[in-house]
Amino acid sequence: MTKGYTQADMDAVSDNPELTADDIASAVPFVDAFPDLAAKMRATRGPQKKPTKQPITLRLDGDILDRFRATGPGWQVRINDALRKVAP
Predict the structure, then answer these.
(1) Disulfide engineering: 9 pairs with which of 5, 17, 29, 55, CB 3.0-4.6 Å?
(2) Over 42-88, what HEC string results?
(3) pLDDT averaged over consecutive 10-residue blocks of the chain (88 residues)?
(4) How far is CA 4 from the centre of its chain?
(5) Helix axis angle, 75-86 relative to 62-69, nearest 10°?
(6) Can you tell me the distance from the alpha carbon of 8 to that of 31, in angstroms, rounded to the nearest whole number?
């Protein structure tokens, strides 16, 4: 087992038994099992009141793009911030 826990420890606290082949065969999609809840979850977000960003096509040098991508998630926002700093 992991992190010092034995299988007996896991069995003692587990309230989620392993699924059998019959369990898996009889499973249904969430939307079929809970249609009202699924509909409510889909309806929680509407269109933006005022879109703040616009999708565009922009050609950048590969080395610049590589540098921003290397900084990890959010690199597009960092490009936007860098452009904002130099915009007249």
Answers:
(1) 5
(2) HCCCCCCCCCCCCCCCCCCCHHHHHHHHCCCCCHHHHHHHHHHHHCC
(3) 78 82 94 91 74 87 96 94 94
(4) 31
(5) 120
(6) 36
* Predicted pLDDT at 3: 77
**Triad 49, 75, 63: Cα angle to 5°:** 140
- Asked if 60 and 53 count as a contact pair (C-beta separation under 8 A), the reply is no
Of 54, 34, 52, the residue nearest 42 (C-alpha): 34
Task: Give pLDDT, residue 45.
Answer: 66
The answer to whether 79 and 69 have CB atoms below 8 angstroms apart is: no
Q: How many helices (H) and strands (E) does the chain have?
A: 6, 0
